């Protein structure tokens, strides 16, 4: 996705992509592992090489402030202009959200622009844990700094499609047999848990 955004010039030209995770990897290994998910069309080879020149990878833990201080030093290397914004995309196990966001707030807040976080994965496992995470984040960031993605919000809408249709009069003029020929809902995920059983046992499919 980042490559497509870069290829189509939908990102600022001086955007830098900095990967951070526990796994010890070189950027060449990151490139090799992601190659099967990336499509490069004929004539895009030069732009693709340029894209990878904007990528950096750093290994560290999620619960140690010192590692996030090293991350902050790495990010700061590329903030040459007077304005530099930081966007943290947290594709992490929910069990480390609180530690990671605390360390981002304390060690990686940008000094030259805004700092924002995207939380991607189930936002808690029930109402209580979701509220706990929201309260934690509210103590670290302003609401406009936080963007939440939850895998299951779409599922709830599909399960309640009939209620949604007849409970909201705004849909009545359009959601009827004169305007809709058919409704097709597809769910396809052709891979298993692949070593992530502990995660799914608490938050996802198995639970």
TrEMBL record:
It holds the Pfam family G6PD_N. Residues 162-207 form the Glucose-6-phosphate dehydrogenase C-terminal domain. One of its GO terms (molecular function) is NADP binding. GO terms for biological process: glucose metabolic process; pentose-phosphate shunt, oxidative branch. It catalyses: D-glucose 6-phosphate + NADP(+) = 6-phospho-D-glucono-1,5-lactone + NADPH + H(+). Residues 1-160 form the Glucose-6-phosphate dehydrogenase NAD-binding domain. Its EC number is 1.1.1.49. It is an enzyme of class 1 (oxidoreductase). Cytosolic glucose-6-phosphate dehydrogenase that catalyzes the first and rate-limiting step of the oxidative branch within the pentose phosphate pathway/shunt, an alternative route to glycolysis for the dissimilation of carbohydrates and a major source of reducing power and metabolic intermediates for fatty acid and nucleic acid biosynthetic processes. This is Glucose-6-phosphate 1-dehydrogenase. It comes from Dyseriocrania griseocapitella. The lineage of its organism: Eukaryota, Metazoa, Ecdysozoa, Arthropoda, Hexapoda.
